[in-house]
């Protein structure tokens, strides 16, 4: 659940109570489902432009994702407290976006502890059921992946932003085709590093972004050991159909061959040839 949508269409910032009501209602509508709440992520295409001038005056427009919220502690604490209160009756997975440094992640986890203490002091029972994970969306995150994974409960790869950082693409550049670049063998090696490191510490890895629902990327991601896929519901049936036709015994050889290739076209052609040989459609 992308919590920024509670913020970007409002003239006033949502209170802790408003957020608590909203987060609780999500569980009521999605019983027995695992729900991940991505904390406030502000960027060029998701901004707080509709806030009143009075509200804007106290906001520090520094960084995005976790860095932004750490620079706006009051906003962040309202959100964390709402999520913690929600976790008393539900399992809440908090995911920090755009995490680049171990220091920022440690600060966020300390802030959660501070919020717990403050809630307990006003009579909220100490029965919080929270897991904290991160999104890996930049090359700097990848550089620090070993340290980040060790103090995270779960990992999610944001391939859209990670691809843009890998190719040094402006997010608003519409001329770049991600579906062409995602097959870059060096990018696949980066994904391999992230997933392998997470599994070393027994942490699960999910993926969101266009790559997670791309049918030609599917055998690569399964071969890499990706645990969970996040995609548009419209793509689920087709992806499940392809999954049922892929022989898991083929994947080690397939991945080994792909990592030896030199360009994205060769990678996609290899997958197409594999699908053709197995009559996968």
For the structure shown, list the relevant keywords.
281 residues; six-stranded parallel beta sheet; alpha/beta; single chain; 14 helices
Strand order of the largest sheet: 1-2-3-4-5-6
Structural class: alpha/beta
Number of strands: 6
Average pLDDT for all residues:
90
Oligomerization: single chain
* Beta-strand residue fraction: 5-15%
Q: How much helix, percentage-wise, in residues?
A: 40-55%
Q: If helices are DSSP runs of H or I spanning 4 or more residues, what is the number of helices?
A: 14
Q: Major β-sheet, in short? A: 6 strands, parallel
Task: Tell me the overall shape.
Answer: elongated
- Distance separating the two termini: 32 Å
What Rg do the Cα atoms give?
Answer: 20 Å
Residue stretches low in confidence (pLDDT < 50, at least 5 long) are none
Which H/E pattern describes the elements?
A: HEHHHEHEHHEHHHEHEHHH
Could you please describe the fold and organization of this structure?
It is a single chain. Helix content is 49%, strand content 9%. It has helices at 16-29, 53-56, 66-70, 73-86, 102-121, 139-143, 145-150, 159-166, 178-181, 185-200, 218-224, 233-245, 251-258, 264-277; strands at 36-38, 92-96, 130-136, 154-158, 205-208, 228-229. It has a six-stranded parallel beta sheet with strand order 1-2-3-4-5-6. Strand 2, helix 5 and strand 3 (130-136) form a beta-alpha-beta unit. Helix 1 runs parallel beside helix 4. The chain is elongated, with a radius of gyration of 20 Å. 31% of the residues are buried. The model has no long low-confidence stretch (mean pLDDT 90).
């Amino acid at each position: 659940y992308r919590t920024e949508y509670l913020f970007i269409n409002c003239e006033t910032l949502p209170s802790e109570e408003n957020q608590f009501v909203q987060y609780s209602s999500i569980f009521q509508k999605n019983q027995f489902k695992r729900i991940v709440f991505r904390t406030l992520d502000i960027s060029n295409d998701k901004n707080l432009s509709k806030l009143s001038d009075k509200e804007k005056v106290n906001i520090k427009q520094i960084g995005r994702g976790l860095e932004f919220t750490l620079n706006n502690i009051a906003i962040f604490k309202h959100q964390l407290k709402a999520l913690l209160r929600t976790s008393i009756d539900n399992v809440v997975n908090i995911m920090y976006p755009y995490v680049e440094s171990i220091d920022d992640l440690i600060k966020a986890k300390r802030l959660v502890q501070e919020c717990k203490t403050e809630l307990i002091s006003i009579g909220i029972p100490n029965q919080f059921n929270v897991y904290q994970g991160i999104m890996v969306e930049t090359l700097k995150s990848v550089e620090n992946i070993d340290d980040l994974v060790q103090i995270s409960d779960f990992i999610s790869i944001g391939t859209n932003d990670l691809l843009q950082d890998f190719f040094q693409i402006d997010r608003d550049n519409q001329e770049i085709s991600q579906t062409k670049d995602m097959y870059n063998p060096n990018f696949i090696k980066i994904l391999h590093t992230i997933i392998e490191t997470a599994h070393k510490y027994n942490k699960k890895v999910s993926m969101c972004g266009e790559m997670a629902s791309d049918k030609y990327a599917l055998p690569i991601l399964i071969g890499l050991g990706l645990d969970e896929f996040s995609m548009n519901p419209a793509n689920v049936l087709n992806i499940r159909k392809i999954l049922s036709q892929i022989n898991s015994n083929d994947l080690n050889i397939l991945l080994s061959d792909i990592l030896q290739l030199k360009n994205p076209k060769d990678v996609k052609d290899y997958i197409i040839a594999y699908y053709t040989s197995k009559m996968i459609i």
